[in-house]
Amino acid sequence: MDTKMNSEWVKEQEEMVLSLCICQECPSWVECGEKGGYCFGTIGKSECIFEEKGCICLGCPVADKSGLEFMYYCTQGSAKEQEK
Q1: Does the N-terminal or the C-terminal CB of the chain have fewer CB atoms within 10 Å?
Q2: pTM
């Protein structure tokens, strides 16, 4: 896969993640202009959520569709980061 196709695929995946994302419904959510989608590796952790007040990641359609098993992607990072 060339770089252009790869970047287009990543952008499409990010858009899919954000369209299904329920981060803004989470008790840990902090309104700061972010869109969520923290489970996706290229989006990364939140820059404004620091307190874990509850987690709904496992009930998210993105987690279900992608087979994600971790929680608190907003503070702990993507599945790849949490596997370390």
Answers
A1: C
A2: 0.88
